[in-house]
Design goal:
158 residues; 5 strands; alpha+beta; five-stranded mixed sheet; elongated; single chain; 5 helices
Length: 158
């Protein structure tokens, strides 16, 4: 719960700065696809290793000024200051590809992939929570499209 407050506080600050400077800001929501079968078959310890592995790979792929936080279970949020939609999508795709191509012998026949939703301050300007919610909606769209993909939030009629 504390991490959620921290990412939200930071997100609100970044959003306020972006509004004042009329600059870009994007948020990503990442969800590890099909983690439950890994936990059920190989155990929670292996599931925890997968979560740590995904966090490490995502962090390595992001820019130094970006912020990544685990917000719940197998979900992560990333704040990308000064990133437009194209730049954020490129970062999200690199994260997705890096995770997809990493193979862990301990996982046997399980592939680790992520679904990523992206939202921009250009589409959602009301609050950081609303921006995060828009990224979450886009992430669920990525899941609905078969997982292991990146979707961008377009509008409220998503």
């Amino acid at each position: 719960r504390q991490r959620q407050m921290c990412i939200r506080d930071r997100g609100e600050r970044y959003m306020e700065q972006a509004r004042k400077a009329k600059s870009e800001l994007c948020v990503l929501m990442l969800d590890i696809d099909h983690l439950k079968p890994i936990n059920d078959t190989l155990g929670d310890d292996v599931g925890d290793k997968v979560i740590c592995h995904v966090a490490r790979l995502a962090s390595e792929t992001m820019r130094a000024r970006d912020v990544l936080a685990r917000i719940a279970g197998e979900e992560f949020s990333a704040i990308l200051p000064d990133a437009n939609v194209d730049q954020a999508k490129a970062i999200a795709e690199r994260i997705r590809e890096k995770i997809e191509s990493s193979i862990d012998k301990e996982l046997k026949h399980f592939n680790v992939t992520v679904s990523i939703g992206l939202a921009s301050i250009q589409k959602v300007q009301t609050s950081f929570d609303e921006l995060l919610y828009a990224a979450d909606l886009a992430m669920y769209k990525a899941k609905a499209n078969g997982c292991n993909s990146v979707c961008t939030y377009m509008s409220s009629d998503q």
